[in-house]
Design a protein that fits this description.
By secondary structure, the chain is an alpha+beta fold. The protein has 11 helices and 27 strands. It folds into 2 domains: 156 residues, no CATH class; 320 residues, TIM Barrel (Alpha-Beta Barrel). The strands form 5 sheets. The protein has an 8-stranded parallel β-sheet with strand order 23-22-21-20-16-15-14-24. Strands 3-4-13-10-9-6-7 form a 7-stranded antiparallel β-sheet, with helices on one face. A 6-stranded antiparallel β-sheet has the order 1-2-5-12-11-8, with no helix packed on it. It binds 4-nitrophenyl alpha-D-galactopyranoside. 4-nitrophenyl alpha-D-galactopyranoside binds next to helix 1.
Length: 487
């Protein structure tokens, strides 16, 4: 049906699927395809990525689109491969076009169903893979409109309130080369440093899919967890519970537990570790039982903070036992995990679909992996590629999501050793993490100079008052930080 949205200074004719209701902050439009005839011509469009690693940001409708280009494998891992296209300006869940005087016209989904939003010079459109969620439509000052959208989302999907505090993670220093002695040394060197969480990343398990202690942790994971706790930190652990590598015990012995393709074979749901991998079909009760067993074990080891990674793979297309939409299957699985681990467990989502994770994860990664180098010239077409610049650009474009959960821009660096980052670049990363209010690093004390150790302590102990003064301009404790030149 036709409807005209009256925003005072602009009137927007639209095609909608049901009667819009007016609220103080915007309109609620019933589920179904939506097309708004905006009057702004070629203008900037805000594109939002589907999962943690997917690119987000503003691009002109008459310029290049933002997204992963020329790599189906990366697309499958780091965005919504079914719906994403390099040919149109579009994205996941929310989109906005810029009007005059700093105002924007925003359309955003208030639920699941893989909602998409796109734009060109004339139309701002929205529709779901499955049209089951209402839309929020608003026009006004950019930050107000995004904040109002976020509040409308959390009104429906919830908002958890636990805070992670400061985090030390093993990934950006040791990668998979961790073992129980190295962890014990690293922990004891860190004793007394201002960290709340010590999080063990990938490398402890024998293979992705089999969540038991690997050969490098012969004393078992409970021993490592209690060493971490004894040093005064909350023990944290990385897992990718939705996926399994082909050589894992679970994939070899229980292929029936995996999401299938149309030929009844395990469906490839992404690529990493020089391999393809598969997804668990969380709609099967046997898989729910398996997840219960995994998470009861991990809780029993003594971990109180979990980084759950590659979670989008629980929301890919494919054949599942129950015929539910993929985002619904995903959210149900996370709720099941939450029920097993309890309310006090901090859950950090990584590689998560952003919208279906609201209200169930305490925090989410909001950009691709950081690296100890600024840019990755080899992957010019891939804004989801590893590197400091890609990581912070994506993260800053998601600062509005703070209202939905804690937002993790990934680790920052203090070390000058084993890094190609300049002090200026490290400072920009530290400012980004201060702005997003999630402070983590992977620097082992041993790798830091005396000055760098002091700098780390000061930074991790600082409480900052953050003000946003422009799209990419902020004040951190009164200090002006303008990131516009990097964006
Ligand atoms: C452990 C790592 C770290 C890291 C995570 C994740 O798009 N990709 O292909 C892609 C691959 C790996 C990856 C991120 C994206 O790294 O983000 O912090 O935990 O796994 O293996």
């Amino acid at each position: 049906m036709l409807h005209t949205f009256d925003f005072g200074t602009v009137r927007i004719p639209a095609n909608v699927s049901g009667h819009p209701t007016s609220t103080p902050s915007g309109y609620i439009v019933p589920a179904g395809p939506l097309a708004l005839l905006h009057p702004f011509g070629d203008t900037e469009f805000y594109r939002h990525g589907w999962n943690s690693w997917s690119p987000s940001g503003w691009a002109r409708t008459d310029g290049a689109t933002i997204g992963i280009k020329n790599s189906p494998r990366r697309l499958l891992t780091a965005d919504d491969a079914v719906n994403e296209t390099p040919h149109a300006h579009s994205g996941s869940a929310v989109g906005a076009v810029a009007g005059p005087d700093g105002n924007v016209l925003l359309v955003g989904a208030l639920g699941l169903g893989t909602p998409r939003v796109g734009a060109d010079a004339n139309v701002l459109w929205a529709r779901g893979e499955e049209d089951v969620c209402d839309w929020f439509v608003a026009y006004g000052p950019e930050r107000t409109v995004f904040a109002d959208y976020a509040d409308a989302v959390s009104e429906r999907l919830g908002r958890r309130s636990q805070r992670a505090g400061t985090v030390w993670s093993s990934w950006y220093s040791f990668f998979e080369d961790i073992d129980e002695d190295l962890v014990a040394r690293t922990v004891s060197d860190l004793a007394g440093y201002p960290f709340d969480v010590f999080q063990l990343d990938d490398g402890w398990e024998p293979i992705v899919g089999d969540w038991i202690a690997g050969a490098k942790f012969p004393s078992g994971m409970a021993t490592t967890a209690s060493r971490i706790a004894d040093a005064g930190f909350r023990p944290g652990l990385w897992l990718a519970p939705m996926i399994a590598l082909p050589d894992s015990d679970i994939a070899r012995t229980r292929p029936d537990l995996l999401v299938q393709d149309d030929d009844g074979r395990p469906l490839v749901s992404g690529y990493n570790w020089n391999s393809h991998y598969y997804s668990l079909d969380t709609t099967q009760s046997e898989v729910k039982d398996h997840l219960r067993e995994v998470f009861e074990r991990v809780v029993g080891w003594g971990f109180g903070y979990l980084k759950l990674d590659f979670m989008y793979a629980g929301a890919i297309t494919g054949n599942r036992r129950e015929n539910v939409h993929r985002e619904t299957a995903y959210r149900d699985a996370i709720r099941h995990i939450r029920e097993v681990v309890g309310d006090s467990m901090y859950l950090l989502g990584c590689g998560v679909p952003m919208l279906p994770s609201v209200g169930v994860f305490d925090g989410t990664r909001v950009g691709p992996d950081v690296g100890a180098f600024w840019d990755n010239a080899e992957r010019a077409d891939d804004p989801s590629g590893v590197g400091a610049r890609n990581s912070l650009v994506a993260s800053i474009n998601r600062v509005w999501m703070k209202r939905l959960y804690e937002v993790d821009p990934d680790a920052i660096y203090f070390r000058s050793a084993r890094s190609l980052l300049s002090e200026g670049e490290r400072q920009v990363l530290r400012d980004t993490a201060a702005i997003l209010e999630f402070r983590s690093t992977s620097d082992p004390v041993e790798w830091l100079t005396t000055e760098e150790r002091a700098q780390l302590i000061d930074y991790m102990e600082e409480t900052a008052v953050i003000e946003q003064t422009g799209r990419y301009a902020f004040r951190i404790n009164g200090r002006e930080v303008d990131l516009t030149p990097i964006m």
